[in-house]
Each structure stands twice: as C-alpha cells, then as structure tokens.
Amino acid sequence: MALTDFPNQDFEKPEPRDVPEPPGSMRDRLVPPFRGSPLWGWLGPLLVAAFGAFLRFDRLGVPKAVVFDETYYAKDALSLINFGVERVAVKDADKLLLSGNTNIWQNCAATELDKCASYVVHPPLGKWMIGLGEWVFGANPFGWRFVAALVGALSVLMVARVARRMTRSTLLGCLAGLLLAVDGLHFVLSRTALLDVFLMFWVLAGFGCLVVDRDRARERLASWYEGSRLSGTGPWLGVRPWRIAAGVCLGAAIATKWSGLFFLAAFAVMSLVWDAGARRAIGLRRPFSGAVRRDVPAALAGLGLVPVVVYLASWTGWFASPSGYGRNWAQATGNGPVFFVLDSVRSLWNYQSMVLGFHTGLDSSHPYQSQPWQWPLLLRPVAFFYESPNGCGPSKCSQAVLGVGTPVIWYGALIALIALIAWYVATRDWRAGAVLLAYGAGWLPWFYYAVSDHRTMFLFYTAPMLPFMAIAIALAAGLLIGPADARPGRRLAGAAISGAFVLVALINFWWLYPVISAEIIPYDDWHRRMLFDRWI
C-alpha cells in the first residue's frame, strides 16, 4: 500500500453539515486507517531494527582506541558518573583508560575543588548517557560506545514506525528504517562516543511524538465533529500527553547539544499549523483563531515550559556539587536558602553565557572542517580514526573509521528532497512539509554561522537530518509506486525502481564497510574506497 492512497488531509474540503455524510467519512479523512496486519506493523520494523543493531554491536570495541572527540566525552562521562560534574584529567589519561586504569583525575585539596573543575561547552545529558554504558561495562571502548549503539539501533526502529504512521504503509516504513540502518554516517556515529547520535535520537523521538499527537488530536476533533454543530473556533482538545512527551524529548535534545533549539522552534510551529489545518479540514469558520485560542496555551506549556524543566534537570549534578565549573558554591551556600537558589541560577546563566561566547567564536582551522553547502554532497567527511597496522601480509595496511554517509543514500535523498519540494508546492501535503521542515531545521541555521561567524563545522553536524533523509526517500518511493488503483504497470515499475535503489544502497554500504568499521585491509583497497580526493 502506497502513501498516495491517502490524499492530503489538511486541505480536504469538508461536506456541508446539512448534507448527510456517510458514517466515519470525516474521521477517515482526518485519521486514515492503517492498512495491513498490525502484527507486521511491529514485526517488520523490529526485524529491521535487529539488523541495524547487529551491524552496530558487532565488533563495537574495535578499534581499541580513543577515537576523535571520544577523548573529551569518554572522560567527561566517566567523571559525571563518579563526581556528578566534569573534572580535569591528568596528562595521558587516554592511555591510562585503554590500559584499564581509571584513576585519571587531578588531585585537588578539599578547599580547592574548583581548580579541578573542567570547563565544558556542551550540556551534560549526552555525556550522562555515555557514562551509563561505562558504569555497566567499564571505562573501555565497548563501555563508552554501548549506549550510542543502543540508541542508534532504537532510532532505526523509530524511523520505521514514524514513516509507517506517516504513510500508513508498513513496507515504506521498513524501507525508511533499512536505509537508516545502512547509512555510513549513522553507522559510524552509532559506534562512537560523540554527542551527535544522542541529539539525533532525541530530535527524532520528539518528531515522532508530535506525529502521534497529530493523529490523537484529529481523532478527538473527529469525535467532536460527529456529535456537535459546526460553529465558531471548535473545542479545546484536552490534555495532550504526546505533545508533552515531545517537549520532554526536545528538551533532552537541547540538554545534549544546543542545536536542539532549532528543532524545538520549528516543530512547535509545525504542530500548531497541524492543529489549524485539522480545524480547517472539518469546516470551522475560524480555524486559525481557534488554534490560537484553544491550542496555543497548552502548547506553550508542553513545548515551552517542559523543555526548560528538562534542560535544568540535566544540570542536577552541577547544582548538587561544589566542584562544578563556575558553580560558586561558597557564595551560594553562605546566605540562606533563597539566595542559594537565586545565586545558583545566576551562576548557571553566567556559565551558559560563557559557553555561547565559545560557540560563536569557534573559528579555528581544522583539517576536516567543512561548510554546510558541502554537506549534502559528502565533499569533506571526518577521519575519526586511521592507523597503518600489520596484519595483511606484505602489503601496507590501513585501519580506518571514516565518518561518511553512504553516497547512494545521500544522493538519492537529495533527489527525493527536491521531489518533495515540488510535491509540497503542488499539494501542500503535510508529510512533505514536515520532512522538509525537519531537514531545513538541521541544515539551514548553519549557513548563518558559516557566513556571519566563520564557525568551524563538520559533516557529522548533519546527524539529526539523517532520519528525515531516509523518510524522504520512503515518501518518494511511495510516489513512484502510486496509489492502489494506479495502473499495474506503473506500480510494478515503481516497485522495481524502489527495490533496485535499496539493493544498490546495500551494496554501497557493503563496499564502504571496511573503511567505516576499522577493518584491517590493504592500503590499495582502502584507497579505492575514497570517492573523492578530499575524503583522504
């Protein structure tokens, strides 16, 4: 079943209320029914996620090294688990960790704990998640990569389920999940203790919650429509737990990296536009004023207040410790409980101001930096790890982890996104608009920082965009296959093209696998896999 079996619901013209309407017709327009087996609606995505999990957990501890920015986050995570805040490590701490020695912290007298505080420039939640793996499995490469692999596999499941809900097609949902599972950059980030995979996870979770909330709100609106006279601005739709859950997830995204703010702002507007579209679809005379009066106040709580609470909660360790950077504990505790709270908040605000200055002033040159207009074409990936070990006979050997996407998927996604622009302009379909908005929220803000601040940036900043690239391809595949009543020849051709694309993507991933998973291979084999000279 293809996504085009269900036309754009937000802009269906409602039938007049004085004309009898077939039972359930408005409900079916507002919330199209799922087709196919509910069992396969779960089993299919779970099988795809299991495949993605196998890829990510197999040889997870390889390379046995501190890879790229793991040098910051593996130690910060361990410090959070031990002390509640990040502390300064001794020289050669990476070597000590790899040898099994976790006694890597500088010693400070009880009266000088602030001198051991580490100045960090990202919020703590992603590091807490990394630390959870270290707490369970130890401070070793497998331990600090475990939760990244776990959320990478879970994100494959979420993409499959979200795409299924958007298209009402289990097949298209599984297609999106499979493409995410075999994207090279998603694979690498799921096997590396960096923050970006956690940012991606929480952004995707927030988006998925809002897609579910869209269905639930429209179900309530359909029930009201079936039992009420059509007039005015429509009803209040009650407490919306999925929107609150979205606020929690997007707050967690910001508590991982500040770039989660871009998605919170974009998704909040998107959700309110969906509300207005639903009110318009049932024929309310004032749908937009209805959305403002009935939906905005609750949305401000769910997507405004909740993320702030989640963000502040992520700093609990910093609030509770005397040794956090900029904590100013002595002053905060010396003047009573009221001053303690006020000064703690003021200290945190001052710390955030320092971090903002760091990010806007980050313009130092890096050999693997790239500009946002280069990202969709994979012109400059990041070499996370490279060594020339022995182990492949007389030939010179290479062992590499190249942070690069699967080219077939990335270039296919670029074509699909262009198709979605045309589709949205022609039909205003909410699915195309949602994917384009999410992709733009992860990409376009970086143009400002590139032009205005000349900021140092990297390809892996695209991590939150990866799920939406996979969904874009699934939507394009649905357009190719066509609706159930399309000519059999068209559906066969569309299915053949879509299937061939997935097969080529799998082959492309298999070809790249040795240079994104730290396999030891001959140097010539490594070099043949460098698509451009700038990959080296």
Radius of gyration: 25 Å
**Shape assignment:** globular
N- to C-terminal separation?
43 Å
Class computed from helices, strands and strand pairing: mainly alpha
Topology (elements, then pairings):
Blueprint: H1 25-30, H2 38-57, H3 70-83, H4 93-98, H5 125-137, H6 141-167, H7 170-181, H8 184-189, H9 196-227, H10 241-254, H11 260-281, H12 287-313, H13 316-320, H14 329-333, H15 336-360, E1 382-387, E2 397-403, H16 407-427, H17 430-443, H18 445-453, H19 466-481, H20 488-516, E3 520-522, H21 523-528
Helix pairs in contact: 2-6, 2-7, 3-5, 5-6, 6-7, 6-9, 6-19, 7-19, 9-10, 9-11, 10-11, 10-12, 11-12, 11-17, 16-17, 16-19, 16-20, 17-19, 19-20
Short summary of the structure?
The protein has 536 residues and is mainly α. The protein has helices spanning 25-30, 38-57, 70-83, 93-98, 125-137, 141-167, 170-181, 184-189, 196-227, 241-254, 260-281, 287-313, 316-320, 329-333, 336-360, 407-427, 430-443, 445-453, 466-481, 488-516, 523-528; strands at 382-387, 397-403, 520-522.
What can you see in these coordinates?
The structure is a single chain. This protein has about 525 residues and is mainly alpha-helical. It has 21 helices and three strands. A three-stranded antiparallel β-sheet has the order 1-2-3. The longest helix is centred in the middle third of the chain and has 32 residues, at about 195-225. It is globular and about 75 Å long. Residues about 5-20 have low confidence and may be disordered.
